[in-house]
Structure formats: C-alpha cells, structure tokens
Amino acid sequence: MTIFTTQKRSDVMNDNTKKILTRAAPWLALLFWLTVWLVIALIFNKPLLLPTPVAVAKKLGELLCTATFWQALALSLLRIVAGIAAAVALGTLLAFLCVRFKILDCIIAPLLNLFKATPVASVIFLLLLFIGRNTVPLFIAFAMALPIIFSNVKEGLLQTDRQLFEMAAVFRVPRGRTLKCITLPSLIPYLVAACRAAISLAWKAGIAAEVLAVPEHALGRAIFESKQYLQTDELFAYTAAVLIISAVLEKITLRLLRDKGGRDRC
Questions:
Q1: Do residues 206 and 140 make contact, with C-beta atoms less than 8 angstroms apart?
Q2: Tens digits of residue pLDDT in 5-27
Q3: Would you state the pLDDT for residue 262?
Q4: Rg over CA atoms, the chain
Q5: Cα–Cα separations (whole angstroms), residue 79 to 107, 140, 167, 192, 211
Q6: What distance in Å separates the CA atoms of residue 212 and residue 204, rounded to the nearest whole number?
Q7: Do 107 and 95 contact (CB within 8 A), yes or no?
Q8: With 90 as the cut, is the pLDDT of residue 217 above it?
C-alpha cells in the first residue's frame, strides 16, 4: 500500500513538473534569444546600429509614459482592428453565400485569388491614389484578412456533417437552433484557425501600410520617423510594441472565440 501511494505521489509530481516546464518553455526560449541578442550587441558594440535589449526596454518604458505613443497606438488599433472585423464579417457572409450558390463562388474566387497574389506594397501605392492615407491601413488589413477568413469558413461549412442537417430537417428543428447547435460548433475550430493566421498577417500588413502611407498619429509613422532620424533604440522599441500588441490581439480574439464556442454548445 505504501509503495502504491509513493508511486502515485511520484506520478503526480512528474505531471506537475511537465506542466510547469510546458508553461515555462516559451519564456525560456524568449530569454535565450534575448541573451543571444545581448551578446551580439555587446560584441558588435555599435548602439547606433544594434542597441542592447536593455536600451530598447528602457526606451519602450519612456514611450509608454508619453501621450503620443498611446494616441498612435489607439488610432493604429482602430484602423487595423476595424479592417479585420470587416473581413471577418464579410468573409463569413460570403462563405455562407458561396456554399449556397455555386455560381457566386465562381465569381468571387478570382477576386480573392487576386487579393492573395498581389504584393502588399503595390496595393498600398494603388490605394494612395484613390483614398486618403489615413484609410489605407484599414483597407490593407481588410484585404489581407478576407481571403483567409473566407477560405477557412467555407471549408468549415463544407466539412459539416450533412446528416446532422438532414436530421434537423426531419425533426423540424428551427433554423436558429440549427445554426446555434450544428453550424456554429462546427465552424468554431475553422474560425479560430483563420483568426490565428489572419490577425497577425493583417496587423503586420497594416503597420507596413502605415510605414509607407505615413498617416497621422500611427505606430507605422513613428517607425518611419525613427528610421529617418536614425533613432535605432526607438525603432526597436516601437517594433517590440507592435509584436507585443499582435500577440495580445491574437490571444484575446482566440479566447473570445473559444468561449463563444463553448457557450453555444447544445
């Protein structure tokens, strides 16, 4: 009995250790690469070209204390998140319509393929000819996210078990309940995968659009100006802020979608 209890405690401790290591692994990897960066910066010893992580963290802390940074962050988020939200709404609607009407799928497919194939820089410069520079990042985020959302949602709809819909029709289940209990639970994994890819891509493309279009009060404009004036530590700090915000946006969106999927289960 004592041996069995000891073995059980050992198994529990091993499981706890594995869980701790799994959670710590990303942070340990980050620490490793920060150390590599620090060593290279110290060996290179040219702060104007490659500042140390400490200098970048210090500059980022200074930026966080300024109203200019938060204004640029707020407007960049507003533009790009609006583009992503529009892509999710329109992409989901188009996926439903294209599954229902095959002729519409044939009409829409070339346009979405064009979105995916056209270089981002070309789209940015073309949009600058027709719309204001403050609106370009929104359209770029929308154009980058739309094909991903559309294709994933469409695939989710096509992979949904047809027999479930037939059963719902036989038992005269209302369409609203069919949507909630059959369609949405089947779509959530595909939508989660789509958002994971689309958010990071649209965010990076939106910031790139801000760098080229130079709209007022934007993170991309701040990155452009930092590069122009050779403020390398500030350039790295703004880049770090963009990466952190991208990760936070993705985490929040995926958590909301998973929670929504859990609540909608019947």
A1: yes
A2: 555 555 555 566 667 767 777 78
A3: 55
A4: 24
A5: 29, 10, 44, 22, 14
A6: 13
A7: no
A8: no
